[in-house]
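Lecture notes, structural biology module. Today: joint structure prediction for complexes of two components.
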Amino acid sequence: GQQVMQIPQYQHVQEGEDFTTYCNSSTTLSNIQWYKQRPGGHPVFLIQLVKSGEVKKQKRLTFQFGEAKKNSSLHITATQTTDVGTYFCAGPDSWGKFQFGAGTQVVVTP
Amino acid sequence: GAGVSQSPRYKVAKRGQDVALRCDPISGHVSLFWYQQALGQGPEFLTYFQNEAQLDKSGLPSDRFFAERPEGSVSTLKIQRTQQEDSAVYLCASSLVGVRSTDTQYFGPGTRLTVL
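The predicted structure, tokenised, for the full assembly:
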């Protein structure tokens, strides 16, 4: 079945630095969604990408959908302590159910 | 309502007990999903309702798990004869339309179940 993988599993960043986290699917996706889960919280929807090669920005966050629609990335610039949390990507399988990756846990050092 | 609510937020059960977890979706949302999230993992799909119809229950791990949404709004996830491996956070999400669309899912705060 479809697998959604995220790397890295953990990301330690110094405040002010940039980093990128990656999401890879074993199958082509019709769309991909990104969520953020703060420690002790629940997943909160960030963005959805639908088109091949699509790039969307939300302030310091840049999301990209690969040309083959099998991978995606999230790039955060000038990391802040408010960026702490786990970032999940999710893509629908052939039945329409969303498969979540295991997430990238981001820790920010002041 | 303002968002998806779940109750209880925390549940401790002795092994073998039955538990019932409640989800109140956003008013007017057609679709409702249940997920199980183990520590350090992403949410794993359990089951999906469109209104009162349970269209997909392929993710339910065993026949001890049962979900219902009798009037197409509130949903209950019931786990019978709980086992230690059932310990997890159970998340409920709702969306306006359906799973085959590109609709956004809104998650509730989850119920953290601990089975002793």
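Point to remember: The interface with chain A takes residues 35, 40-45, 48, 56, 58-59, 91, 98-100, 102, 104-110 of chain B (CB under 8 Å).
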